[in-house]
Amino acid sequence: MVRLRHRYIIAEVQMEEEWKSGNVTRQNALMEAINKSIRSLHGIQGVALSKAGLYAKYINPSTKICFIRMRRTAYEIVTSSLPFVTRLDGQLMSFKTIYTGATIRHCNIFLQKYHRRELETKYGSLKSDLQRKLFEAELANMAPLSVKIS
Q1: Is 40 a member of any domain?
Q2: What is the pLDDT of residue 22?
Q3: Secondary structure class of 52 (helix, strand, coil)
Q4: 52 and 117 inside one domain
Q5: Number of helical H runs and strand E runs in the chain
C-alpha cells in the first residue's frame, strides 16, 4: 500500500478591503479561485494533477491566515499558481506564502513563532507607556484560539 504524502502551505490572504466581521470566506470560493489560476497557467493537465488532493484546511479571517493542503506531486503547480490568484468573492486580493511544511504539526509550530514575532514587533513600535499598557490590556482580554484541524 502506498502512503499519500501531502504538503501544507501557510499563506496570508491580503485583501484590498478589510474583511468585515460577519464576512466569512468560504473554503469553496478559495478553492475555486486557486483552481481557476491553475487552469489559466497549467491547463487541464495541471488541474487534473492538483485537484485530487487540493483542499483549504483552515481559514481565519481575524489573522488572515489559511492552510492549504495538496499532494506532494502537485506542490510545484499549486505554489506557482498562488501569486496569480487576484480575486476572492469579488474582492481584490493576493497571497503571501509564509511557510511550506510536510506536516500540520510543523506548520502549527511555525505559526505560533510567527504570531509571537508579529506581536513583538507591534509592541516594540508603540511609543508611549500608555499605548503599551492598552496593548497589554487588549492581549489579556483576548481568549486563546484553539483550533483543531482535522
Answers
A1: yes
A2: 46
A3: coil
A4: no
A5: 4, 5
DSSP assignments along 80-114, one per residue: HHGGG--EETTEEEEEEEEEEESSHHHHHHHHHHH
Shortest CA distance to 108 belongs to which of 62, 57, 40?
57
Residues 31 and 84 in one domain: yes
My answer on whether 134 and 67 are in the same domain is no
149 domain residue, yes or no:
no
Q: pLDDT by residue (tens digit) across 66-86?
A: 899 999 989 999 999 999 999
Q: Is there a single domain that holds both residue 13 and residue 41? A: yes
What are residue 97's DSSP bridge partners?
Answer: 11
Q: What pTM was estimated for this model as a whole?
A: 0.77
Q: Which of 15, 16, 19, 55 is nearest to 35 (CA)?
A: 55
Q: Which domain holds residue 131?
A: 104-142
Report how far residue 110's alpha carbon sits from residue 121's, in angstroms, rounded to the nearest whole number. 17
Same domain assignment for residues 116 and 96: no
Which residues, 6 or more positions from 108, have their beta carbon under 8 angstroms from its beta carbon?
A: 149
* pLDDT at residue 21, as a whole number: 47
Q: What percent of the chain has pLDDT over 70?
A: 89
